[in-house]
Write a structure and sequence with these properties.
single chain; mainly alpha; 0% strand; elongated
C-alpha cells in the first residue's frame, strides 16, 4: 500500500508540475489561453489526489482539513480550466488567478505539515 501511495503522490506532483508549466509558458505572451498541458495537468493532479486520499484513509488518519483545502482549491482550478478550455483567450485576471491558486495549492501541500509532538 505504501508503494501505491508513493506512485499516486508522484503522479499528483507531476500533474501540478504540468499545470504550472502550462501557465508559466505563457508569462511573456500578450494573449493568455487555457492550453492542453493545463487541462491534462489539473485533471491528472485532481484524480490522483482523490485516489491518494483513499489510500491515505486505508493507511491511517490523514489531515482532513488540509485535504479539504487542497480539494476545494483544486476543484476551483479544475472548473476554471474546463470552462475556459475552448475559448481562444482568457482575461489577464483569470490567468493570474489560476497562477496564484496553483501556487497556493502547492504551498499548502508543502508548508501545511502534520504536527509532530
Amino acid at each position: 500500500m505504501e508503494t501505491l501511495r508513493l506512485v499516486l503522490l508522484f503522479v499528483h506532483i507531476l500533474g501540478y508540475a504540468a499545470l504550472l508549466g502550462g501557465l508559466l509558458v505563457q508569462v511573456r505572451s500578450e494573449t493568455k489561453a487555457v492550453n492542453p498541458l493545463m487541462r491534462d495537468g489539473i485533471g491528472t493532479a485532481f484524480l490522483a489526489g482523490l485516489l491518494l486520499v483513499g489510500v491515505l484513509e486505508s493507511l491511517g488518519s490523514p489531515d482532513h482539513a488540509k485535504i479539504g483545502v487542497k480539494f476545494a482549491v483544486g476543484l476551483v482550478i479544475l472548473v476554471l480550466v474546463m470552462v475556459n478550455m475552448r475559448k481562444p483567450s482568457i482575461p489577464q485576471g483569470l490567468y493570474v488567478g489560476l497562477l496564484v491558486l496553483t501556487i497556493a495549492n502547492i504551498a499548502v501541500a508543502v508548508f501545511w505539515s502534520p504536527v509532530h509532538a
